[in-house]
Amino acid sequence: MFKLHLVHFLLCIHFANGAPEGYLPIISCLEESNIPQDYPNTSNFSQDSLDYNLRLNFTPIAIAVPSTVPQVQAAVNCAAKLGIKVNPKSGGHSYAGHSVGGEDGHLVVDLKYFRETKVDSATNVATIGPGARLGNIALDLYAQGERAMAHGICPGVGIGGHVLHGGQGYSSHTYGLLLDFLVSAEVVLANGSVATASNTSNPDLFWALRGAGMSFGIVTSMEFRTIPAPPENILFYYPYLWNQTQAHAGWDAWQAYCGGETTPIIPPAMNVRWVIVDGDDGLLLFLLEGAFHGSIEDFDLSIAPLIDVLDEIGGFQGNVTGVVGWLDALLYANSNGLYSNWDNNQTLETPLNYTAHATFFAKSLMTRNLSPAGVDAWINRLYATGPTSPTGWYFIVAAQGGPTSYVPTVPADSTSYAHRHSIYEWQLVAQTNSPPFNDAGITWLNPFVSDIEAAESNLTLGMYYNYADPTLSKEEAHERYWLQHYGRLAEIKKSVDPDLVFLNPQTVGN
Ligand SMILES: Cc1cc2nc3c(=O)[nH]c(=O)nc-3n(C[C@H](O)[C@H](O)[C@H](O)COP(=O)(O)OP(=O)(O)OC[C@H]3O[C@@H](n4cnc5c(N)ncnc54)[C@H](O)[C@@H]3O)c2cc1C
Question: Over 50: is that where the pLDDT of 13 sits?
Answer without folding.
Answer: no
